Amino acid sequence: MAKTPTQDLAKTSVQLTHPERIYWPDDGVSKQDLVDYYALAWSRMAPFVVDRPLALLRCPDGIKGPRFFQKHAWKGINPHIEEIADPEDKDGEKLLRIRDFDGLAALVQSAALEIHPWGTTTAHWEKPDMIIMDLDPGDDVAWSAVIAGAQDIKARFAEMGLASFVKTSGGKGLHVVAPLKPKATWPNVKAAAEAIAHGMSADSPEEYLSVAAKAKRAGHIFIDYLRNGRGNTAVAPYSARARPGAAVSMPLAWEELTEKIGPASFTVKNAASRLNDRFADPWADFFEAASPLKS
Ligand code: ATP
Ligand code: MN
Ligand code: MN
Protein backbone atom coordinates (compact mmCIF):
# COMPACT_ATOMS: atom_id res chain seq x y z
CA MET A 1 0.00 0.00 0.00
CA ALA A 2 1.25 3.47 -0.80
CA LYS A 3 2.64 5.29 2.16
CA THR A 4 0.81 8.50 2.95
CA PRO A 5 3.22 11.41 2.92
CA THR A 6 3.88 12.68 6.41
CA GLN A 7 3.86 16.36 6.97
CA ASP A 8 5.86 17.88 9.74
CA LEU A 9 3.39 20.28 11.30
CA ALA A 10 4.63 23.05 13.57
CA LYS A 11 2.42 23.91 16.54
CA THR A 12 1.86 27.20 18.27
CA SER A 13 0.40 28.46 21.51
CA VAL A 14 -0.32 31.84 19.91
CA GLN A 15 -4.04 32.51 19.88
CA LEU A 16 -5.28 34.02 16.61
CA THR A 17 -7.97 36.62 16.96
CA HIS A 18 -10.46 36.39 14.08
CA PRO A 19 -8.75 33.43 12.37
CA GLU A 20 -11.41 33.65 9.66
CA ARG A 21 -10.34 37.18 8.69
CA ILE A 22 -9.64 37.26 4.96
CA TYR A 23 -6.27 38.74 4.01
CA TRP A 24 -6.39 37.99 0.25
CA PRO A 25 -10.02 38.67 -0.70
CA ASP A 26 -9.85 37.56 -4.34
CA ASP A 27 -8.24 34.27 -3.33
CA GLY A 28 -10.26 33.64 -0.18
CA VAL A 29 -7.11 33.21 1.92
CA SER A 30 -7.63 33.82 5.64
CA LYS A 31 -5.36 34.41 8.60
CA GLN A 32 -5.86 30.75 9.62
CA ASP A 33 -4.98 29.58 6.09
CA LEU A 34 -1.71 31.51 6.28
CA VAL A 35 -0.76 30.03 9.67
CA ASP A 36 -1.67 26.54 8.42
CA TYR A 37 0.59 27.00 5.38
CA TYR A 38 3.47 28.24 7.56
CA ALA A 39 2.98 25.30 9.94
CA LEU A 40 3.78 23.01 6.98
CA ALA A 41 6.66 25.15 5.72
CA TRP A 42 8.20 25.86 9.13
CA SER A 43 10.84 23.11 9.33
CA ARG A 44 12.23 24.28 5.97
CA MET A 45 11.72 27.98 6.51
CA ALA A 46 13.03 28.36 10.07
CA PRO A 47 16.78 28.73 9.32
CA PHE A 48 16.00 31.66 7.02
CA VAL A 49 13.88 33.67 9.47
CA VAL A 50 14.92 32.69 13.02
CA ASP A 51 17.45 34.97 14.76
CA ARG A 52 17.63 37.42 11.87
CA PRO A 53 16.62 41.06 12.00
CA LEU A 54 13.28 41.25 10.17
CA ALA A 55 11.41 43.88 8.22
CA LEU A 56 7.70 43.24 7.86
CA LEU A 57 5.09 44.26 5.36
CA ARG A 58 2.00 44.64 7.53
CA CYS A 59 -1.47 44.87 6.03
CA PRO A 60 -3.98 44.97 8.92
CA ASP A 61 -6.99 44.98 6.57
CA GLY A 62 -5.54 42.53 4.07
CA ILE A 63 -3.84 43.20 0.76
CA LYS A 64 -6.39 45.75 -0.40
CA GLY A 65 -6.01 47.96 2.66
CA PRO A 66 -3.22 50.23 3.90
CA ARG A 67 0.26 48.70 4.17
CA PHE A 68 3.31 49.53 6.26
CA PHE A 69 6.87 48.35 5.67
CA GLN A 70 8.05 48.13 9.24
CA LYS A 71 11.46 47.45 10.81
CA HIS A 72 10.69 48.50 14.38
CA ALA A 73 8.38 47.48 17.20
CA TRP A 74 4.91 48.92 17.68
CA LYS A 75 2.70 49.49 20.68
CA GLY A 76 1.21 46.27 21.99
CA ILE A 77 3.56 44.05 20.00
CA ASN A 78 3.13 40.34 20.65
CA PRO A 79 5.73 39.07 23.17
CA HIS A 80 6.79 36.27 20.78
CA ILE A 81 8.25 38.99 18.54
CA GLU A 82 11.46 40.10 20.23
CA GLU A 83 12.92 43.56 20.18
CA ILE A 84 16.68 43.60 19.69
CA ALA A 85 19.23 46.39 19.66
CA ASP A 86 21.35 46.82 16.55
CA PRO A 87 24.92 46.68 17.94
CA GLU A 88 25.91 49.48 15.54
CA ASP A 89 22.99 51.64 16.68
CA LYS A 90 22.59 50.84 20.37
CA ASP A 91 20.56 53.96 21.16
CA GLY A 92 18.40 53.72 18.06
CA GLU A 93 14.99 52.15 17.70
CA LYS A 94 14.99 48.42 18.37
CA LEU A 95 14.81 45.89 15.53
CA LEU A 96 12.64 42.77 15.42
CA ARG A 97 13.46 39.10 15.62
CA ILE A 98 11.65 35.80 16.12
CA ARG A 99 13.02 32.64 17.76
CA ASP A 100 10.48 29.95 16.88
CA PHE A 101 7.15 29.11 15.26
CA ASP A 102 5.28 31.03 17.94
CA GLY A 103 7.12 34.06 16.62
CA LEU A 104 5.97 33.40 13.07
CA ALA A 105 2.38 32.82 14.23
CA ALA A 106 2.62 36.11 16.15
CA LEU A 107 3.71 37.82 12.91
CA VAL A 108 0.65 36.47 11.13
CA GLN A 109 -1.53 37.53 14.04
CA SER A 110 0.02 41.00 13.54
CA ALA A 111 -0.93 40.95 9.84
CA ALA A 112 2.69 40.74 8.69
CA LEU A 113 1.87 39.31 5.26
CA GLU A 114 5.47 39.49 4.01
CA ILE A 115 8.63 38.72 5.98
CA HIS A 116 11.91 40.29 4.85
CA PRO A 117 15.01 39.21 6.80
CA TRP A 118 18.53 40.54 6.67
CA GLY A 119 21.06 38.25 5.02
CA THR A 120 22.67 37.47 8.34
CA THR A 121 21.86 36.24 11.82
CA THR A 122 22.17 38.10 15.09
CA ALA A 123 24.99 35.69 16.04
CA HIS A 124 27.26 37.45 13.50
CA TRP A 125 25.64 40.73 12.52
CA GLU A 126 28.53 42.12 10.52
CA LYS A 127 29.18 38.98 8.48
CA PRO A 128 26.41 37.97 6.08
CA ASP A 129 25.73 34.28 5.51
CA MET A 130 24.35 34.70 1.99
CA ILE A 131 24.54 36.80 -1.18
CA ILE A 132 21.17 37.48 -2.79
CA MET A 133 20.85 38.36 -6.47
CA ASP A 134 17.38 39.60 -7.38
CA LEU A 135 16.39 39.42 -11.05
CA ASP A 136 13.89 42.16 -11.82
CA PRO A 137 12.52 41.82 -15.35
CA GLY A 138 11.13 44.94 -17.01
CA ASP A 139 8.02 44.75 -19.15
CA ASP A 140 8.37 42.71 -22.34
CA VAL A 141 11.05 40.37 -21.01
CA ALA A 142 10.42 36.72 -21.90
CA TRP A 143 10.35 34.40 -18.91
CA SER A 144 12.92 32.17 -20.65
CA ALA A 145 15.32 35.14 -20.50
CA VAL A 146 14.82 35.48 -16.74
CA ILE A 147 15.61 31.77 -16.34
CA ALA A 148 18.74 32.22 -18.49
CA GLY A 149 19.74 35.17 -16.30
CA ALA A 150 19.42 33.04 -13.16
CA GLN A 151 21.58 30.36 -14.76
CA ASP A 152 24.15 32.98 -15.73
CA ILE A 153 24.34 34.10 -12.09
CA LYS A 154 24.70 30.48 -10.99
CA ALA A 155 27.67 30.06 -13.35
CA ARG A 156 29.27 33.27 -12.06
CA PHE A 157 28.84 32.14 -8.46
CA ALA A 158 30.36 28.76 -9.40
CA GLU A 159 33.43 30.56 -10.80
CA MET A 160 33.77 32.21 -7.40
CA GLY A 161 33.60 28.80 -5.71
CA LEU A 162 30.07 29.44 -4.43
CA ALA A 163 27.05 27.15 -4.56
CA SER A 164 23.75 28.74 -5.50
CA PHE A 165 20.08 28.18 -4.84
CA VAL A 166 17.09 29.57 -6.71
CA LYS A 167 13.61 30.59 -5.59
CA THR A 168 10.63 32.27 -7.14
CA SER A 169 10.02 35.75 -5.75
CA GLY A 170 6.27 35.23 -5.65
CA GLY A 171 6.13 38.46 -7.68
CA LYS A 172 7.68 38.92 -11.10
CA GLY A 173 11.18 37.54 -10.86
CA LEU A 174 13.63 35.07 -9.40
CA HIS A 175 16.16 35.23 -6.59
CA VAL A 176 19.49 33.41 -6.82
CA VAL A 177 21.09 33.00 -3.41
CA ALA A 178 24.63 31.84 -2.60
CA PRO A 179 25.30 30.62 0.95
CA LEU A 180 28.41 32.12 2.57
CA LYS A 181 30.52 31.15 5.52
CA PRO A 182 30.09 34.31 7.59
CA LYS A 183 33.60 35.71 7.20
CA ALA A 184 33.45 38.62 4.76
CA THR A 185 31.89 41.93 5.86
CA TRP A 186 28.87 43.72 4.33
CA PRO A 187 30.88 46.08 2.09
CA ASN A 188 32.84 43.15 0.63
CA VAL A 189 29.73 41.05 0.04
CA LYS A 190 27.89 43.95 -1.57
CA ALA A 191 30.91 44.66 -3.79
CA ALA A 192 30.91 41.03 -4.93
CA ALA A 193 27.20 41.21 -5.78
CA GLU A 194 27.72 44.49 -7.61
CA ALA A 195 30.61 43.02 -9.61
CA ILE A 196 28.37 40.16 -10.79
CA ALA A 197 25.65 42.60 -11.85
CA HIS A 198 28.08 44.89 -13.67
CA GLY A 199 29.75 41.89 -15.30
CA MET A 200 26.41 40.74 -16.69
CA SER A 201 25.42 44.17 -18.02
CA ALA A 202 28.87 44.63 -19.55
CA ASP A 203 28.77 41.23 -21.27
CA SER A 204 25.11 41.44 -22.41
CA PRO A 205 24.00 45.10 -22.40
CA GLU A 206 20.96 44.26 -24.51
CA GLU A 207 19.67 41.98 -21.77
CA TYR A 208 20.85 43.21 -18.39
CA LEU A 209 20.99 46.44 -16.45
CA SER A 210 22.95 46.95 -13.27
CA VAL A 211 22.28 50.62 -12.56
CA ALA A 212 19.33 51.16 -10.22
CA ALA A 213 18.30 54.44 -11.85
CA LYS A 214 17.58 52.57 -15.09
CA ALA A 215 15.96 49.60 -13.39
CA LYS A 216 12.55 50.01 -14.98
CA ARG A 217 13.70 50.01 -18.62
CA ALA A 218 11.45 47.77 -20.70
CA GLY A 219 13.00 44.74 -22.34
CA HIS A 220 15.83 44.48 -19.80
CA ILE A 221 16.39 42.57 -16.60
CA PHE A 222 17.69 44.68 -13.74
CA ILE A 223 20.21 42.63 -11.78
CA ASP A 224 19.32 44.02 -8.37
CA TYR A 225 22.45 43.53 -6.24
CA LEU A 226 21.22 46.08 -3.67
CA ARG A 227 19.74 43.44 -1.36
CA ASN A 228 23.26 42.97 0.05
CA GLY A 229 24.06 46.06 2.09
CA ARG A 230 23.88 46.20 5.88
CA GLY A 231 20.22 46.62 6.82
CA ASN A 232 18.91 45.72 3.36
CA THR A 233 16.42 42.90 3.08
CA ALA A 234 14.84 40.51 0.63
CA VAL A 235 11.68 38.49 1.00
CA ALA A 236 12.27 35.25 2.96
CA PRO A 237 12.09 31.80 1.39
CA TYR A 238 8.49 30.59 1.87
CA SER A 239 7.18 34.05 2.80
CA ALA A 240 3.79 34.91 1.38
CA ARG A 241 3.45 38.01 -0.83
CA ALA A 242 0.86 40.71 -0.20
CA ARG A 243 -0.17 40.68 -3.86
CA PRO A 244 -3.18 39.20 -5.63
CA GLY A 245 -2.86 35.43 -5.98
CA ALA A 246 -1.38 34.82 -2.50
CA ALA A 247 1.86 33.61 -4.09
CA VAL A 248 4.84 32.66 -1.95
CA SER A 249 8.58 32.88 -2.54
CA MET A 250 9.26 29.20 -3.25
CA PRO A 251 12.66 27.49 -3.13
CA LEU A 252 13.20 25.36 -6.23
CA ALA A 253 15.65 22.71 -7.37
CA TRP A 254 17.59 24.01 -10.39
CA GLU A 255 16.13 21.16 -12.49
CA GLU A 256 12.65 22.48 -11.73
CA LEU A 257 13.42 25.87 -13.20
CA THR A 258 11.77 25.51 -16.61
CA GLU A 259 9.17 27.56 -18.40
CA LYS A 260 6.53 25.41 -16.71
CA ILE A 261 7.19 27.26 -13.46
CA GLY A 262 6.47 30.98 -13.28
CA PRO A 263 7.48 33.51 -10.61
CA ALA A 264 4.14 33.26 -8.83
CA SER A 265 3.32 29.59 -9.53
CA PHE A 266 3.38 28.56 -5.89
CA THR A 267 0.83 29.97 -3.51
CA VAL A 268 -0.40 29.68 0.05
CA LYS A 269 -3.15 27.45 -1.35
CA ASN A 270 -1.17 25.07 -3.57
CA ALA A 271 2.17 24.77 -1.76
CA ALA A 272 1.17 21.97 0.62
CA SER A 273 1.88 19.23 -1.93
CA ARG A 274 5.60 20.16 -1.85
CA LEU A 275 5.87 20.47 1.90
CA ASN A 276 5.98 16.83 2.93
CA ASP A 277 8.53 14.06 3.15
CA ARG A 278 7.76 12.80 -0.38
CA PHE A 279 9.11 16.01 -1.83
CA ALA A 280 12.75 16.58 -0.92
CA ASP A 281 13.59 20.03 0.36
CA PRO A 282 15.47 21.60 -2.59
CA TRP A 283 17.36 23.92 -0.21
CA ALA A 284 18.13 21.26 2.43
CA ASP A 285 21.91 21.62 1.94
CA PHE A 286 21.91 25.41 1.86
CA PHE A 287 24.04 26.10 4.92
CA GLU A 288 26.21 23.00 4.47
CA ALA A 289 27.04 24.22 0.96
CA ALA A 290 28.39 27.54 2.25
CA SER A 291 31.89 28.67 1.28
CA PRO A 292 33.76 31.80 2.30
CA LEU A 293 33.76 34.69 -0.14
CA LYS A 294 37.24 34.88 -1.66
CA SER A 295 38.67 38.36 -1.75
P1 ATP B 1 9.66 40.92 -7.72
O1 ATP B 1 9.99 39.57 -8.27
O2 ATP B 1 8.30 41.34 -8.11
O3 ATP B 1 10.73 41.91 -8.03
P2 ATP B 1 10.76 41.17 -5.10
O4 ATP B 1 10.46 40.66 -3.76
O5 ATP B 1 12.11 40.78 -5.63
O6 ATP B 1 9.63 40.71 -6.12
P3 ATP B 1 11.64 43.90 -5.39
O7 ATP B 1 10.83 45.10 -5.66
O8 ATP B 1 12.60 43.47 -6.43
O9 ATP B 1 10.59 42.73 -5.04
O10 ATP B 1 12.45 44.00 -4.06
C1 ATP B 1 12.14 44.95 -3.12
C2 ATP B 1 12.93 44.65 -1.89
O11 ATP B 1 13.19 45.85 -1.22
C3 ATP B 1 12.15 43.78 -0.98
O12 ATP B 1 12.70 42.50 -1.02
C4 ATP B 1 12.29 44.40 0.40
O13 ATP B 1 13.02 43.56 1.27
C5 ATP B 1 13.01 45.70 0.18
N1 ATP B 1 12.27 46.88 0.61
C6 ATP B 1 12.85 47.94 1.16
N2 ATP B 1 11.94 48.88 1.47
C7 ATP B 1 10.74 48.42 1.08
C8 ATP B 1 9.39 48.93 1.13
N3 ATP B 1 9.12 50.12 1.64
N4 ATP B 1 8.41 48.16 0.64
C9 ATP B 1 8.66 46.96 0.11
N5 ATP B 1 9.91 46.42 0.04
C10 ATP B 1 10.94 47.14 0.51
MN1 MN C 1 12.85 41.47 -7.41
MN1 MN D 1 14.56 44.30 -6.73
Write the layout of secondary structure elements.
Blueprint: E1 22-24, E2 29-30, H1 31-49, E3 54-58, E4 68-70, E5 82-84, E6 95-97, H2 101-109, E7 112-117, E8 130-137, H3 143-159, E9 165-168, E10 174-179, H4 186-203, E11 208-209, E12 221-224, E13 251-252
Parallel strand pairs: 11-12
Antiparallel strand pairs: 1-2, 3-4, 3-7, 5-6, 8-10, 8-12, 9-10, 9-13
The protein binds adenosine-5'-triphosphate and manganese (II) ion (2 copies).
Textual characterization of the structure:
- With 295 residues, the protein is α+β, with helices and mostly antiparallel strands.
- Helices cover 21% and strands 17% of the residues.
- The chain contains four helices and 13 strands.
- The chain has a six-stranded mixed β-sheet with strand order 11-12-8-10-9-13, with helices on one face. A three-stranded antiparallel β-sheet has the order 4-3-7.
- The longest helix has 19 residues.
- The mean pLDDT is 96.
- Bound molecules: adenosine-5'-triphosphate (ATP) and manganese (II) ion (MN) (2 copies).
- The site of adenosine-5'-triphosphate (ATP) has 15 residues, from β3 and β8.
Summarize the structure.
The chain has 295 residues and is α+β, with helices and mostly antiparallel strands. It contains four helices and 13 strands.
In what range is the share of β-strand residues? 15-25%
Instruction: Please give the share of residues in helix.
Output: 10-25%
Bound molecules: adenosine-5'-triphosphate, manganese (II) ion
Number of β-strand runs: 13
Q: Helix and strand string, N-terminal first?
A: EEHEEEEHEEHEEHEEE
Shape: globular
Distance between the termini: 54 Å
Poorly predicted runs are none
Q: Number of DSSP helices?
A: 4
What structural class should be given to the helix and strand makeup? Answer: alpha+beta
Average the pLDDT over all residues and give the rounded result: 96
Strand order of the largest sheet: 11-12-8-10-9-13
Tell me the Rg in angstroms. Answer: 19 Å
- Main beta-sheet strand count, sense and barrel state: 6 strands, mixed
InterPro entries: LigD_pol_dom, NHEJ_LigD, PaeLigD_Pol-like
Organism: Rhizobium rhizogenes (strain K84 / ATCC BAA-868) (Agrobacterium radiobacter)
Keywords: Ligase
Protein name: DNA ligase protein
